[in-house]
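From the pipeline queue, job 12 of 40. The input is one protein chain; the requested action is below.

Action: predict structure.
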Amino acid sequence: MSRLGLGSVLRSAKLGGYAVPACNVFDAVGMDAVLAAGERLSSPVVVQVSTRALRAWGPDRLWQLFAALVAQRQPENPFLKSSAEEVV
């Protein structure tokens, strides 16, 4: 599976005439909800993390949480699969 960068996702959206939601999350529940919505709709999503959440959780812990939530889903959505491979 090839990795999809944000630029390629946004170019595809522009060409396809659709929007890509960028949802700000503060905790694991919010992150899981955003991923679930993307999976349910077979849509790409951008998971944004607030500066406050980044300071509270730390980048490594946030990345581990994100990767674990994606792995739990075993999504068929290629956007979610490739996102776990991206470097945040």
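Job complete. The radius of gyration is 13 Å.
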